[in-house]
UniProtKB/TrEMBL annotation:
Keyword annotations from UniProtKB, A to Z: Cytoplasm, Magnesium, Metal-binding, Methyltransferase, Pantothenate biosynthesis, Transferase
Predominant cellular place of this UniProt entry's protein: cytoplasm
Pathway(s) it belongs to: Cofactor biosynthesis; (R)-pantothenate biosynthesis; (R)-pantoate from 3-methyl-2-oxobutanoate: step 1/2
GO function terms (MF aspect): 3-methyl-2-oxobutanoate hydroxymethyltransferase activity; magnesium ion binding; methyltransferase activity
Identification of the protein by name: 3-methyl-2-oxobutanoate hydroxymethyltransferase
Originating gene: panB
Catalytic residues (UniProt): E185 (proton acceptor)
PANTHER family xrefs: 3-METHYL-2-OXOBUTANOATE HYDROXYMETHYLTRANSFERASE
EC number assigned by the record: 2.1.2.11
Function: Catalyzes the reversible reaction in which hydroxymethyl group from 5,10-methylenetetrahydrofolate is transferred onto alpha-ketoisovalerate to form ketopantoate.
Requisite cofactors: Mg(2+)
GO cellular component, one term: cytoplasm
Length: 285
């Protein structure tokens, strides 16, 4: 089995300019898919609120729901570095609340690190607190879906002078606060490129152009997500329609009596069949 990916290994990959591959996973099968594809990092993203739980934003997902998803992924992933997203509402109240939530993801789900959105003052305090508690933190700046309403919707950030300057300041600040890795989401590549050379920690991009690594939502890249996806998504499969076609074919065969066929049934001895019949004796038909 390949050696487990550690923060040290991620830092070495950055130093060697070896691209870091990160993908989301939300359950045992997607975790196993990521592991078998030999990715470096797996993110149990709160995007699971949308792609597996059917909410229309990431805001609704709870800590207990995320713990179930993260635990299932951890049971499948033995090599890649597993990061669990801290959901909205689980860190906002205080540093103490943030530490307590992060500890649950490490102890109950076996996460290697937790991810926290935002780079404002309160967020920096949470990053410091969690990192000081000994839990690695992956920061997330640029488009932060948990607070998308305050950002004017799910749209690219860093396109105005103020917004571009804010992203650079926040990326540097989360590093100074003790983050071990930073995700930059939906930011013009030219703006991300300004701050990249000033970040010692690995930078994972999603819709931010070239970086030390990339992350995509697994349902988007495999073509399970229905409808329009973000402009930065590239599809590497189309298994959503295959899944529907498979279940529809099963439904047709059940309805027409083709399934189950003789090859899908268990055989029994004559004695067992006789005993089954005898068990009916004396009962009303
Ligand atoms: O929740 C998630 O999937 C994420 C990625 C989009 C970075 O935060």
């Amino acid at each position: 089995m390949p050696a487990r990916v550690t923060l040290q290994r991620l830092a070495e990959m950055k130093a060697r300019r070896e691209p870091i591959v990160m993908v989301t996973a939300y359950d045992y099968p997607t975790g196993r898919t990521a592991e078998q594809a030999e990715v470096d990092m797996v993110l149990v993203g709160d995007s699971g609120a949308q792609v597996v739980l059917g909410h229309d934003s990431t805001v609704a997902v709870t800590v207990d729901e995320m713990l179930v998803l993260a635990g299932a992924v951890r049971r499948a992933v033995h090599t890649a570095f597993v990061v669990a997203d801290l959901p909205f509402g689980s860190t906002e109240v205080s540093d103490e609340q943030a530490i307590a939530t992060a500890v649950r993801f490490v102890k109950e789900a076996g996460a290697d690190a937790v991810k926290l959105e935002g780079g404002g003052e309160a967020r920096l305090s949470r990053i410091r607190a969690i990192a000081d508690a000994g839990i690695p933190v992956v920061a997330h700046v640029g488009l932060t879906p948990q607070t998308a309403v305050a950002l004017g919707g799910l749209r690219a950030q860093g396109r105005t002078a103020d917004s571009a300057a804010r992203i650079v300041r926040e990326a540097l600040a989360v590093q100074d606060a003790g983050a071990s890795v930073v995700v930059i989401e939906a930011v013009p590549a030219d703006v991300a490129a300004v701050v990249l050379p000033h970040l010692r920690i690995p930078v994972i991009g999603i819709g931010a152009g070239p970086a030390d690594g990339q992350v995509l939502v697994v349902h988007d890249l495999l073509g399970i997500t229905e409808g329009k996806t973000a402009a930065f998504v590239k599809r590497y499969g189309a298994i959503g329609p295959d899944m529907v076609a498979g279940v529809a074919a099963y439904a047709r065969e059940v309805r027409s009596g083709v399934f189950p066929g003789t090859e899908h049934v268990y055989s029994a001895t004559e004695v067992a069949v006789e005993a089954a019949r005898a068990a009916l004796e004396g009962r009303e038909a």
